């Protein structure tokens, strides 16, 4: 703005500064200027000292440049981010006509002066002295380069548009004495700059740093943006346009069809409708200067003037919305914004992303990503009426933790206009709150992997038998927080209302039996399971630890991220080595120099004993086999796979499967709310079943690209059939017998009373009997009916045998089978035994005992 309070002392100070500069530079003031300056030698000497005292060394920092993400090949661009769209080039990568145009119009004596064009500067100072307006031009290319360097140094730390605007104002729009002092500082720096760098370096540096309107910086980015050509291919008329734009970028830019200003009648100016009149006028001026300097012919001049300005606006895409893998891109952006490798503060990390000129090679596999994205688009619609439908997939390399793909059913957008549209989302469903903005989803039975691991770590076998019948599990141990009590006193149901069964852990895993896994957890410490969850890399998606205070956490009630769960399954597939998921392989600066300190630290750690991991994999292979709940997701290509299905309250479904090389995690469900998936369909398939086809196709491609091998053999001690000693409780009171057996871990049922001579409250028989039995055998106890007796052994004649039986309390006695015996005489008889046999316990009153005997002739 014009300085309304200019003073004589201020003007004199500026003129003295000019004289001092002239003395320092060893240049005489032209004759036209000298009469206007009347100063003493002392004044000149003072000005010289003031000029010499100004800072002279200007550090040329790295240019603000876009940060670019690449696929894992390091060559295929994934996305670009910038505050200033710039593509720095070398001296030979700019058309010579561009150099001619900028020099003729901005600094025709560039190769003659020592950094300051005294003629142009004197003219500008005198104009300021006379006019009282803002500081006028007269700056050399070197001075303009200095000004742009100072602006950029200020903008490096600017975090808002207001901060950036303030940087520009301070560097360009100071008026009066302040403006002259700014000019003097520019001159001081410019002179020093020319002592350090060649003219060509300064000229190229200026063209690479200068603003060409909006966020377009540097001549190459400007050429590509406005005309769709690199700087080396600029024509005369195009170069003249760009040389004109740089003089006043946001007035002369040609990318705004409606224009940059208005005429007095209010109509648009400098737009397509008026042929970009303001820019055309400036272009014509540049062409005239080229002609005057003899750099173009009259014919070239006239042809270029007659040629209309014809932009070919080619925006440089930026951001994840322009990416071919937007949700992976957004995940990486979250890593950059959260990881200290890119800066100690959020502002520093934002600067690294948008101004740092980094080249970031990600872990994204272009072939796997494209295949997975195609599968997701084929199976999962972008929205489903009546619910907030979502689906996501991710692949992780088991031996490194490298994230190979991320896909999602929704279209990516961060636009406010997309808010509320169920087809769009900016959240990365595969990630968590910190990395992707998602609060995760209930894991369902995929979470059983942690109980399985803890079961094995506790020394239990996968072939140990348990009572998996659904029932109330009243009490579970958690040494971290105290015992957990099922205060609701309700059963936790199985899928499709199954009643459960007695079986082995292998069977419970293959069939995903909730009550079976609750029976396992009942024998464990939930605190130990929680520790396994943590060491295998899983937390709540919000970042808090999972503490396992409730029974339903065993079967996956906690909301977690697909990437974290994929990492846990990859741990089992990787012989118990957990590798933290990583999305970045390499970071370099704009010149390709490696910056290892900017690669986020990720480690691989042995967290599970290899024998435990191998045995867990052995059990999880059953899920993917015929009859297992995950068999529909098996691509059937011969690759060995482990896996687990998961369903939570019919609102969330999962399928996680893994070879020894790549893990695939698929989630399909409600991104918000709890609508029943089984009641909604997509392309004729229930939403609850989409996970199978998505996982199957993605894993098939993963197997082709990353062939998996065989899983290690399970540990023999962890797969053995477990036998335990069953004690005898015959003769004990029924309640005491029950307590004894249940205390030993057996399930007890009471059967019908049996014949026994014991008292009626005593156990007369148990099934099975005492001895070695499989663990958790159910023992049936039969109490005595008090009416039993033991059939005695009989001898002598039939009459004697009858007396013996009657004497033992058996009143229902009859003859049985007769056997001829020639040694006997006449009617003599010989008792041979009884039916029931001697020693048999039977009812004295109701059982008929038959005496088998011998006689000479039957």
| Percentage beta strand | 15-25%
**Cα distance spanning the termini:** 143 Å
Strand numbers in spatial order across the main sheet:
7-6-21-20-19
| Low-confidence runs | 1-43, 132-136
How many individual helices? 25
Largest sheet data = 5 strands, antiparallel
Radius of gyration: 45 Å
Shape summary: rod-shaped
State the share of residues found in helices, binned by percent.
25-40%
What do the pLDDT scores average to?
A: 89
The tally of beta strands, per DSSP, is 33
> Would you tell me the structural class of the helices and strands?
alpha+beta
Question: Mind sketching the topology for me?
Answer:
Blueprint: H1 8-25, H2 41-53, E1 67-70, E2 77-81, H3 96-106, H4 118-131, H5 141-156, H6 161-172, H7 176-196, H8 199-209, H9 219-227, H10 236-245, H11 249-252, E3 261-262, E4 268-269, H12 277-292, H13 298-306, H14 326-338, H15 346-355, E5 359-362, H16 366-379, E6 388-397, E7 403-408, E8 411-412, E9 424-425, E10 441-442, H17 448-457, E11 465-469, E12 475-476, E13 484-485, E14 500-504, H18 505-511, H19 514-522, H20 526-535, E15 559-560, H21 562-573, E16 577-579, E17 584-588, E18 604-606, H22 610-624, E19 642-648, E20 652-658, E21 662-672, E22 681-682, E23 685-686, H23 690-705, E24 723-726, H24 734-743, E25 747-750, E26 763-767, E27 771-774, E28 778-783, E29 788-790, H25 798-807, E30 813-820, E31 829-835, E32 841-843, E33 849-855
Parallel strand pairs: 1-5, 8-9, 25-28, 30-33
Antiparallel strand pairs: 1-2, 3-4, 5-17, 6-7, 6-21, 10-15, 11-14, 12-13, 16-18, 19-20, 20-21, 22-23, 24-27, 26-28, 29-32, 31-33
Helix pairs in contact: 1-2, 1-4, 1-7, 3-10, 3-12, 5-6, 5-7, 5-8, 10-12, 12-13, 14-15, 16-23, 17-20, 17-22, 18-22
């Amino acid at each position: 703005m014009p300085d309304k309070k200019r003073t004589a002392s201020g003007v004199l100070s500026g003129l003295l500064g000019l004289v001092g500069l002239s003395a320092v530079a060893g240049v005489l003031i032209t004759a036209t200027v000298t009469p206007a300056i009347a100063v003493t030698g002392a004044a000149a000497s003072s000005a010289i000292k003031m000029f010499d005292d100004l800072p002279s060394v200007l550090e040329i920092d790295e240019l603000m440049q876009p940060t670019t993400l690449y696929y894992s090949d390091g060559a295929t661009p994934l996305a670009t981010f910038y505050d200033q769209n710039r593509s720095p080039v070398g001296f030979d990568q700019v058309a010579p006509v561009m150099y001619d145009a900028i020099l003729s119009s901005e600094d025709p004596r560039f190769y003659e002066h020592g950094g300051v064009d005294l003629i142009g500067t004197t003219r500008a100072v005198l104009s300021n002295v006379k006019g009282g307006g803002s500081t006028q031009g007269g700056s050399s290319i070197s001075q303009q380069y200095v000004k742009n360097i100072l602006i950029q140094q200020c903008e490096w730390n600017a975090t808002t548009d207001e901060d950036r605007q303030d940087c520009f104002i301070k560097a360009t729009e100071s008026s009066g004495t302040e403006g002259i002092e700014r000019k003097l500082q520019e001159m001081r720096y410019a002179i020093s700059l020319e002592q350090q760098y060649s003219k060509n370096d300064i000229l190229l540096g200026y063209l690479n740093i200068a603003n060409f309107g909006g966020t377009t910086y540097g001549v190459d980015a400007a050429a590509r943006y406005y005309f769709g050509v690199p700087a080396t291919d600029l024509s005369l008329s195009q170069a003249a346009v760009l040389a004109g734009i740089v003089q006043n970028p946001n007035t002369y830019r040609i990318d705004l069809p409606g224009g940059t200003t208005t005429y007095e009648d209010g109509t648009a100016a400098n737009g397509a409708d008026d042929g970009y009149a303001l820019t055309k006028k400036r272009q014509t001026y540049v062409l005239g200067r080229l002609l005057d300097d003899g750099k173009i012919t009259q014919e070239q001049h006239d042809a270029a003037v007659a040629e209309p300005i014809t932009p070919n606006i080619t925006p440089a895409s930026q951001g994840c919305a322009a990416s071919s893998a937007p949700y992976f891109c957004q995940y990486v952006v979250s890593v950059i914004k959260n990881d200290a490798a890119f800066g100690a503060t959020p502002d520093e990390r934002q600067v690294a992303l948008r101004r740092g000129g980094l080249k970031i090679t990600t872990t994204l596999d272009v072939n796997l990503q494209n295949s997975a994205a195609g599968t997701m688009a084929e199976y999962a619609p972008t929205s489903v009426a009546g619910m907030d439908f979502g689906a996501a997939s991710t692949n992780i390399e088991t031996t490194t933790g490298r994230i190979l793909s991320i896909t999602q059913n929704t279209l990516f957008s961060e636009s406010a206009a997309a808010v509320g549209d169920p087809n769009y989302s900016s959240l990365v469903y595969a990630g968590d709150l910190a990395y992707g903005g998602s609060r995760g989803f209930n894991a369902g039975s995929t979470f059983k992997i942690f109980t399985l691991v803890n079961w094995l770590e506790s020394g239990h076998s996968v072939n140990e038998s348990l009572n998996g019948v659904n029932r109330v599990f009243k009490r579970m141990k958690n040494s971290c927080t105290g015992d957990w009590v099922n205060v609701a006193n309700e059963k936790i149901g199985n899928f499709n209302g199954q009643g459960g069964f007695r079986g082995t852990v292998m069977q419970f895993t293959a069939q995903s039996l909730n009550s079976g896994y609750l029976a396992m957890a009942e024998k464990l410490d939930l605190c130990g399971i929680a520790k396994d969850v943590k060491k295998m890399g899983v937390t709540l998606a919000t970042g808090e630890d999972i503490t396992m205070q409730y029974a339903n956490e065993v079967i996956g009630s906690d909301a977690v991220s697909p990437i974290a769960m994929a990492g846990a399954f990859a741990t089992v597939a990787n012989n118990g080595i957990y590798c933290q998921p990583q999305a970045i392989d390499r970071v370099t600066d704009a010149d390709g120099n490696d910056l290892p300190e900017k690669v986020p630290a990720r480690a691989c750690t042995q967290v599970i004993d290899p024998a435990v991991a191998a045995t867990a994999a052995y059990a999880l292979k059953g899920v993917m086999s015929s009859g297992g709940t995950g068999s529909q997701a098996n691509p059937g290509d011969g690759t060995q796979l482990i896996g687990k299905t998961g369903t939570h309250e019919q609102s969330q479904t999962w399928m996680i499967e893994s070879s020894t090389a790549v893990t695939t995690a698929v989630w399909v469900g409600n991104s918000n709310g709890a609508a029943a998936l089984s009641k909604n369909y997509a392309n004729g398939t229930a939403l609850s079943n989409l996970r199978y086809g998505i996982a199957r196709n993605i894993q098939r491609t993963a197997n082709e690209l990353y062939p998996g091998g065989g899983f290690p053999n399970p540990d023999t001690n962890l797969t053995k059939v477990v036998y335990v000693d069953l004690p005898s409780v015959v003769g004990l009171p029924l309640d005491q017998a029950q307590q004894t057996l249940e205390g030993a871990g057996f399930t007890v049922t009471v059967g019908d009373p049996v014949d026994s001579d014991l008292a009626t409250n005593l156990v007369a028989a148990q099934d099975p009997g005492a001895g070695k039995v499989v663990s958790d055998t159910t023992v049936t106890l039969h109490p005595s009916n008090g009416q039993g007796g033991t059939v005695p052994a009989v001898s002598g004649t039939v009459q004697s045998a009858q007396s013996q039986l009657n004497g033992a309390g058996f009143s229902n006695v009859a003859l049985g089978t007769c056997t001829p015996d020639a040694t006997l005489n006449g009617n003599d008889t010989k008792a041979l035994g009884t039916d029931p046999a001697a020693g048999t316990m039977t009812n004295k009153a109701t059982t008929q005992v038959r005496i088998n005997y011998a006689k000479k002739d039957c």
